[in-house]
């Protein structure tokens, strides 16, 4: 059955390359979003967003309610985590993550009590217009809002990167370009109002004057639903800032920079922010949840997940609480079919295969894609590159993948860098068109990690070198100081001796009054000399003490180069001076 | 449930190398049919001998290099090498000529460089050039087209000539053969004659070369339609030939042939469509392909006009093969969001 298509908007710009894929959005997209039933146990990794892991604010045994804060954001780039339902904190321990490397990470384990009692919500702000952008950002942070398009970047931070008053256009990303995924499509069809209300709130929060909504032409029902609300807003509230732009369904049309290029013609380079171009791009699900957070005071505790692929019995979209084990979600979609052999989080182009389905749904989980071998062609073994350049013709970043591959294979990573390796967005188009079936993206990921680790090594070596130099410098300085003190001491002794000798000579010159007297006075003068020497030693000690105190206050404060500030790091050899065997700076 | 882990993307390419090669093989058919009709059975013998020798050599080399047979032999690239070489050879060539050329092409130009994808030079052209410099006499055995020429030989007669060097009855080799237009032009020029007076034009060799070129063009159109080649190299190469020839002709029309003569004689059209477009040895960037094709066109005419060999296309292609890494490096398209070109990424990552 041919897919229904909307008419593509005029005046778009398009981007180089891309791929026309088989989308497989039906049947999941043809059914309304279902409600995922409660389960017994929820697992909430403390690191389910980009940035620093959140810090738990609950202890094992605590009773919590839905929406209650479980972990607060650490650091600037971080996001809060809230309880998906009511229950008891059972453990805070490492659990398996949905991660391509099959890693574990510290997670909060919540045993549900099945009552699903709500916590007191945050104060609702229906009058958000009276709130400053700073307050709105704080609320988004408090509510744990992150980008739900899959990148999970904390939304408050994204807004904060905009220069003051620097955003002119808000771009809503409704271009869900990966095959199989339809959670945004369904959300736009079923809940267009919160999306547009959320967008209004965002326009206020960043001071933008218009909103472009980019949707692919294979989502006619979503376009219709949003358009209906936009028309109503225009009639009722004279709200004319919204415009839907229907973009062609060419993967990766939903990539942020590809979408911006298509809508505005602006190409945002890799090392620049979208906000540098007075733009801000947000996923439709993100703005809807932002609206719930700001206006209703509801924290982010659930998201829509597409559960699909030939490997599940009843493909559909489900509203799933964050932390739900994936196996339960698959169960809710009818369970696996015979022969399933691959479970992906995300789409087939950029999603990653999971080791197991015991890991939880996190805020980034837009899709669970269970595949059977019949859903794919068999993977033939890779053959040598014939330089046909189909990859470069399809690359949306205008790269030359075959050259990158050549240098990555030859381990000439410097050369890969020359060919702009780091502009690769890992969209997978090159691998998908390669007639030699070379896993090109894999090579690029590998090359990137090699370069990163080489840079880390370099930085480490540089750090060690500076520390060594500083260490040598300090030893030199201490030696010089000690010698200076010693020289002073010697000078003092010498002066005293000379003085005594002079005195002796005077006495010898004088006619001897009495032998005993002379001897006595000689002894006295020797005592004098001795006390002068001991005085100078005392002075040297005092100076050393002073120096020690100075050093202990920390050369860091004085801006000494490369002095280790991290406690516990070895400091090379201990300073050889007897008066200062403690590690300078280490106590801080 | 546990799953094995694969990496993204989780979709597979819809085509493979063999598909790409198959398009090229089909594209060679019209030209081969027309060439056989015009020049006789010798063309088909050349094709059969070169393709067979190339395939067997590839298999032998894979065995010697302890490489798996299946992928390399099923990608069909070696068939193209043999076939292209065969279409470059004279139609009255002895049997060993295509065999020696194909063996050299596969052993030295392809397998010793590492097999498909790793060769710097076009194997067929290497084979051709080796034959040209090693066996100049055998390489001039061009039978005249159609009327009374090599095409008049029956299959059996042609086979006898190819394998045993025996011609039927009283037929002498000279009666069948004819200098190619490029040879004639060379002869006229080297003997101090005037090209214009010698009646050399595109029709001089008969309309046959036009028919042959049209057949090659049909194959090229098919390859373009199927996405096996891009337009850049053929168009740039033809432009290079026409511009250079026009320049020289404009300077001295008595000494240099006209652009159209250059275009339809020798291997310009065939080379532009089938040889220069070999992806392995050609430039891969759009602008690089223009440079690469244009360079071949210019060099081909210069070699024809000032060099020692009648046709310059093969040498021109090999020379430009040599320049490909450089061309590719300096013709990188600007990356998304960046208007500069090469190696100027001074900002950190």
From TrEMBL, chain A:
[4Fe-4S] cluster 1 binds at residues 385, 388, 391, 434. It is found in: Cell inner membrane. Binds 2 [4Fe-4S] clusters per subunit. Residues 497-588 are annotated as: Disordered. SUPFAM superfamilies: alpha-helical ferredoxin, Nqo1 FMN-binding domain-like. The keyword RNA-binding does not apply. It is a peripheral membrane protein. It is an enzyme of class 7 (translocase). Keywords: 4Fe-4S, Cell inner membrane, Cell membrane, Electron transport, Iron, Iron-sulfur, Membrane, Metal-binding, Repeat, Translocase, Transport. Its cofactor is [4Fe-4S] cluster. The keyword tRNA processing does not apply. InterPro entries: 4Fe4S_Fe-S-bd, 4Fe4S_Fe_S_CS, Ion_transpt_RnfC/RsxC, Nuo51_FMN-bd, Nuo51_FMN-bd_sf, RnfC_N, Soluble_ligand-bd. Its EC number is 7.-.-.-. Residues 376-405, 413-444 form the 4Fe-4S ferredoxin-type domain. Residues 497-506 have a biased composition (Basic and acidic residues). [4Fe-4S] cluster 2 binds at residues 395, 424, 427, 430. It comes from the Bacteria. The complex is composed of six subunits: RnfA, RnfB, RnfC, RnfD, RnfE and RnfG. Belongs to the 4Fe4S bacterial-type ferredoxin family. RnfC subfamily. Part of a membrane-bound complex that couples electron transfer with translocation of ions across the membrane. This is Ion-translocating oxidoreductase complex subunit C. It comes from Guyparkeria halophila. The lineage of its organism: Bacteria, Pseudomonadati, Pseudomonadota, Gammaproteobacteria, Chromatiales.
From TrEMBL, chain B:
The complex is composed of six subunits: RnfA, RnfB, RnfC, RnfD, RnfE and RnfG. It is a multi-pass membrane protein. This is Ion-translocating oxidoreductase complex subunit D. It is found in: Cell inner membrane. Part of a membrane-bound complex that couples electron transfer with translocation of ions across the membrane. It is an enzyme of class 7 (translocase). InterPro entries: NqrB/RnfD, RnfD_bac. Its cofactor is FMN. The modification FMN phosphoryl threonine is found at residue 180. Its EC number is 7.-.-.-. HAMAP family: RsxD_RnfD. Keywords: Cell inner membrane, Cell membrane, Electron transport, Flavoprotein, FMN, Membrane, Phosphoprotein, Translocase, Transmembrane, Transmembrane helix, Transport. The gene is rnfD. The lineage of its organism: Bacteria, Pseudomonadati, Pseudomonadota, Gammaproteobacteria, Chromatiales. PANTHER family: ELECTRON TRANSPORT COMPLEX PROTEIN RNFD, ION-TRANSLOCATING OXIDOREDUCTASE COMPLEX SUBUNIT D. The chain crosses the membrane at residues 20-39, 44-64, 84-109, 116-135, 208-225, 232-251, 257-276, 288-307, 313-331. It holds the Pfam family NQR2_RnfD_RnfE.
């Amino acid at each position: 059955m041919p897919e229904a298509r909307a008419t593509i908007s005029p005046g778009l710009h398009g981007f180089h390359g891309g791929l026309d894929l088989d989308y497989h959005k039906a049947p999941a997209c043809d059914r309304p979003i279902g409600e995922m039933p409660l389960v017994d146990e929820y697992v909430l990794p403390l690191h389910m967003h980009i940035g620093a892991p959140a810090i738990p604010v609950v202890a094992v045994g605590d009773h919590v309610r839905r929406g209650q804060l479980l972990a607060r954001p650490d650091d600037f780039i971080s996001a809060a985590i809230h309880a998906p339902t009511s229950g008891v904190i059972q453990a805070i321990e490492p659990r398996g993550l949905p991660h391509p490397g099959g890693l574990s990470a510290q997670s909060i384990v919540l045993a549900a009590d099945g009552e699903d009692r709500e916590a007191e919500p945050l104060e609702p702000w229906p009058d958000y217009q009276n709130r400053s952008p700073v307050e709105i950002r704080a609320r988004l942070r408090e509510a744990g809002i992150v980008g739900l398009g899959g990148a999970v970047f904390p939304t408050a931070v994204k807004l904060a990167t905009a220069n003051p008053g620097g955003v002119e256009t808000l771009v809503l990303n409704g271009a869900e370009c990966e095959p199989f995924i339809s959670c945004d499509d369904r959300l736009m069809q079923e809940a267009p109002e919160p999306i547009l209300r959320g967008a209004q709130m965002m326009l206020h929060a960043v001071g933008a004057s218009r909103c472009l909504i980019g949707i692919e032409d294979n989502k006619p029902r979503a376009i219709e639903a949003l358009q209906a609300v936009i028309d109503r807003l225009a009639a009722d509230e004279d709200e004319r800032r919204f415009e839907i732009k229907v973009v062609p369904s060419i993967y990766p049309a939903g990539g942020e920079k590809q979408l911006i290029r298509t809508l505005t013609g602006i190409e945002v380079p890799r090392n620049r922010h979208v906000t540098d171009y007075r733009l801000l791009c947000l996923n439709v699900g993100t703005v809807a949840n932002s609206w719930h957070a700001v206006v209703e005071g509801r924290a982010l505790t659930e998201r829509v997940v597409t559960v699909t692929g030939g490997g599940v019995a009843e493909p559909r979209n489900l509203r799933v609480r964050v932390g739900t084990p994936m196996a339960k979600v698959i169960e809710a979609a009818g369970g696996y079919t015979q022969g399933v052999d691959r479970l992906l989080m995300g789409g087939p182009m950029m999603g990653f295969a999971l080791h197991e389905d015991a890991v939880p749904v996190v805020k980034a989980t837009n899709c669970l894609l269970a595949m059977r071998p019949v859903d794919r062609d068999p993977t033939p073994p890779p053959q040598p590159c014939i330089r046909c350049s189909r990859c470069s013709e399809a690359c949306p970043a205008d790269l030359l993948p075959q050259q990158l591959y050549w240098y990555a294979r030859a381990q000439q990573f410097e050369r890969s860098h020359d060919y702009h390796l780091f502009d690769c967005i890992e969209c997978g188009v090159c691998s998908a068109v390669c007639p030699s079936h070379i896993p090109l993206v894999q090579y690029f990921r590998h090359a990137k990690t090699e370069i990163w680790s080489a840079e880390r090594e370099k930085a480490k070596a540089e750090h060690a070198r500076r520390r060594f130099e500083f260490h040598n410098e300090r030893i030199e300085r201490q030696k010089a100081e000690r010698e200076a003190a010693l020289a002073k001491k010697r000078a003092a002794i010498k002066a005293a001796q000379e003085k005594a000798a002079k005195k002796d000579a005077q006495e010898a010159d004088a006619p001897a009054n009495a032998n005993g007297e002379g001897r006595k006075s000689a002894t006295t003068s020797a005592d004098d000399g001795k006390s002068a020497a001991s005085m100078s030693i005392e002075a040297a000690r005092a100076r050393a003490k002073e120096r020690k105190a100075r050093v202990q206050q920390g050369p860091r404060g004085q801006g000494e180069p490369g002095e280790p500030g991290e406690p516990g790091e070895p400091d090379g050899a201990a300073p050889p001076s007897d008066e200062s065997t403690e590690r300078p700076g280490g106590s801080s | 449930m546990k799953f094995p882990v694969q990496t993204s993307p989780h979709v597979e390419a819809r085509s493979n190398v063999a598909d790409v090669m198959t398009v090229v093989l089909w594209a060679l058919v019209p030209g081969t049919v027309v060439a056989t009709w015009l020049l006789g059975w010798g063309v088909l013998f050349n094709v059969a001998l070169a393709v067979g020798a190339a395939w067997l050599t590839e298999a032998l080399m894979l065995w010697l290099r302890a490489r798996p047979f299946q992928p390399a032999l099923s990608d069909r690239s070696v068939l193209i090498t043999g076939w292209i070489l065969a279409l470059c050879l004279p139609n009255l060539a002895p049997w060993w000529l295509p065999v020696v050329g194909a063996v050299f092409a596969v052993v030295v130009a392809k397998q010793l460089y590492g097999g498909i994808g790793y060769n710097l030079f076009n194997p067929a052209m290497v084979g051709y050039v080796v034959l040209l410099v090693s066996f100049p006499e055998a390489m001039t055995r061009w039978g005249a087209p159609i009327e009374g020429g090599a095409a008049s030989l029956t299959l059996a007669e042609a086979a006898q000539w190819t394998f045993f060097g025996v011609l039927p009855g009283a037929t002498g080799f000279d009666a069948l053969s004819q200098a190619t237009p490029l040879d004639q032009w060379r002869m006229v020029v080297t003997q101090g004659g005037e090209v214009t007076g010698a009646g050399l034009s595109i029709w001089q060799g008969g309309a046959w070369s036009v028919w042959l070129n049209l057949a090659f063009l049909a194959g090229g159109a098919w390859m373009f339609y199927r996405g096996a080649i891009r337009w850049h190299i053929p168009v740039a190469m033809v432009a290079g030939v026409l511009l250079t020839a026009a320049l020289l002709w404009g300077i001295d029309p008595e000494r240099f042939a006209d652009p159209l003569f250059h275009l339809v004689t020798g291997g310009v059209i065939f080379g532009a469509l089938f040889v220069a477009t070999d992806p392995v040895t050609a430039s891969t960037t759009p602008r690089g392909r223009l440079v690469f094709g244009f360079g071949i066109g210019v060099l081909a005419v210069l070699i024809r006009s000032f060099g020692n060999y009648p046709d310059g296309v093969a040498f021109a292609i090999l020379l430009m093969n040599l320049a490909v890494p450089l061309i590719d490096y300096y013709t990188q398209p600007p990356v998304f969001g960046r208007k500069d070109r090469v190696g100027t990424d001074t900002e950190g990552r």
